[in-house]
Amino acid sequence: MKIKLKSVEGCLIQAIKVIRNHTEMGLKEAKNLVDSAPCEINIKKSFPFMGANGVHEFLSELKAVGVDCEIVENAFLEDIMSDIKIVMHKCVDANEFEVFNELVAAFEMAQKRLEQ
User: Using omega within 30 degrees of 0 as the cis cutoff, is the peptide bond preceding 38 cis?
Assistant: First the structure.
């Protein structure tokens, strides 16, 4: 998953604070990241322990302080969706329709998040 920082004009300090709150970056690292905007941040590489919910919260907080940013690649959710599809097929083969319906709901929720 990648997040693109397009612009941090007028909100440098707030952006640094948000980045530090969501990562283990020090002040200098967070400042260097913000100063390099526009740039792309590879979430898995830069913040390996941040889950999907953490990424969306991180992105929301960046936007709230005025950072122009967006998700440009969402491989994490795509991987989850792929896994769900595999299990869905196994459920159909085993006539486990109750589990199948729960997986369909999870898949649709992941798909909506992917589209955001």
Answer: yes
